[in-house]
Design brief:
Helix content: 25-40%
Radius of gyration: 20 Å
Number of strands: 7
Distance between the termini: 39 Å
Largest sheet: 4 strands, antiparallel
Mean pLDDT: 79
Structural class: alpha+beta
Strand order of the largest sheet: 4-6-5-7
Shape: elongated
Low-confidence stretches: 177-205
Order of helices and strands: HEHHEEHHEHHEEHHHE
Amino acid sequence: MSDEQFTENLRLLEAVLFATKEPLGERKLSNYFEDEIDLKAMLKTLQEEYVNKGVNLVRRGNAWAFRTAPDLAEKLSEYRENVKTLSRAAIETLAIIAYHQPVTRAEIEEIRGVSLSKGTLDVLFEADWIKPRGRRRTPGRPMTWGTTIDFLDQFGLERVEDLPGIEELKSAGLLDARPAINAYTVRGEMELPFDHPDQPEDDTELIEPLAEE
């Protein structure tokens, strides 16, 4: 590819990313180009060009988006959209899903120690922070839940692994030492959902993917 063609492709990539509100996956970005391209190289080049600008090109899982530079975010707080305040139950549920995905409703209730109200998952689902990840291959085939690209984007995370550890949260005073909290780490290393951007292709043993509509 000539330097001129690379520059033109870079301009198109920049325009596509500026025109979308939500992070775009690398596969979707590739669809905008007729010829075969080195998309990763282009994204890296574009990211470097914006590193000291008012907006940065950031990665969210396997998706990309332009976002306000972190050091300027607070200065623009008055222009942010109002975000619905989550209840304590919703916050705890979201945390359990994030750290234990893929996780079923029954497993969430077991960790929290109380029943999950009908609307809690609905609130998180409507916010596009969680989504069904498939059914577990156990009796009853319960639905499992995991986080989304929008969840990573909302909390400024590149990958799920960037979530702070339980000990880090405790030391920061954000979690207490109750037994229910310790249950977050019972499974050891976090299981990723079958279709999560960071999931290895062959890690589908326990999850049955949803049928495509």
